[in-house]
Each structure stands twice: as C-alpha cells, then as structure tokens.
Specification:
The chain contains 11 helices and 4 strands, in the order αααβαβαααααβαβα. With 230 residues, it is mostly helical.
Length: 230
Amino acid sequence: MNPASAAMREDLPVARVARESHSPRGEVPSLLKWTGSKRSQAARIAALAPGHNRYYEPFLGGGALLYMLGRPGAVGGDLYGPLIAFWTMVRDDAESLIDDYARQWAALQADLPEYFYVVRRRFNATQRPEDLNFLMRTCVNGIVRFSKKGDFNNSFHLSRKGMAPSRFAGIVREWSARIQGIEFRQGDFEQTTADARAGDFLYLDPPYGGNKQRYIGDLEVGRFHRALDD
C-alpha cells in the first residue's frame, strides 16, 4: 500500500477499515442479474457518495447504485442497446414486462430446457429487452456472455428455472417506482456524461477489461483514465 493510500484509510471510520463484508441479498431488489453487479455492496458504496446535484451512472449494468442514488433528472447510460431498452421498459411499461416474463416462465417449465434456447435464438435475431431479462434470469450463474459474432451464448442453468412470476412482478413494480424521472441513454461513457457539470456526481464502474466474451468488448483503459483526469 503506498503512503497516500494508507493515509486515506487512516481517515476512514474504524468500522470501514476493519473489514469488508458483503450481504448475499443486499439492499437492492434483484431485478436484472448482471455480471459484476454491486447489489450486495451498494449501500456501503452509496454511503461514500458526496453531496451532488445530478447523478450519472454511465456503466449502468444491473443499476444497483442507481437504485440507491438515482433521483428524477439522474442519468443511467450504457453502450449496450438492449440493456438500455430494458431499463426504459421497466420505467415506462412495467406491466408489459411482468406479463411477458410470466408467459415465458410458464413456457420454460413446460419445456425444459429447450425453451431457453428458443429465446436465446430469438434474442440474437431481434434484441428484445424482454428476452434479455429472461435469459439473464435463467442462464448459468447470471453471467452475460457473447460469442465473437456478438451473439449471447451463455447456456441454461439446470438448477435455475427462473424467479416465480409473482415475486418478479413485485420487484419490477418497486424498481419502476424508484426510477421514474430518470433518463436512460445508450452510448459510450464519454457521450452519456458529456453534459455533466461541476457539482454533479459520476459513478464509474466499468466492465472487466481484457475479456471479450463478457459484456461487449474491451474497455479502452487509457481513454478511460484520460476521461477521469478531465
């Protein structure tokens, strides 16, 4: 640990320095499973956020920090179009998402595991946000993974038959109420935060670097660091 890091940690409350504990459930309802989700740590991270005007989360993913810090006028951004379409649907058309999931869940129970692969093929052809939601709820370990062609290619999790529709419905409605007035933008992290100003707060939690199979490609680390300097 360098001296600056040590000094920073000495300034933290003892309870935060002593240990880092992750709650398996966390404070954030489990809506969209997403690789690298901070759901179990969200409350601890949010507690470190400074006072701010507008909140930006340009690597939105599962949106755990948006749940904690988002208010009307906040911005959730992501490069992956189907993901932004999903969040927009949760905000604007929650009941359609709930109905779609209930139908798909019933179809899966009737045709295990074949129905999962029907949905996977359809998603790769159409990019329906409802199908992205279904795949993430039922794929192996909830890991978003793509082929070199960009097709979703994770497999069905044999012991994961999906969350019960009644429980899912409650979570969708809770999230929908929470994100009313929040703007969702598809684009690169510099694009989706271009109008940020002094007094705004940006939470940047980029996808894993150096792994082309998860998420949709490598992060340009040098450009990311230059953006942080700006």
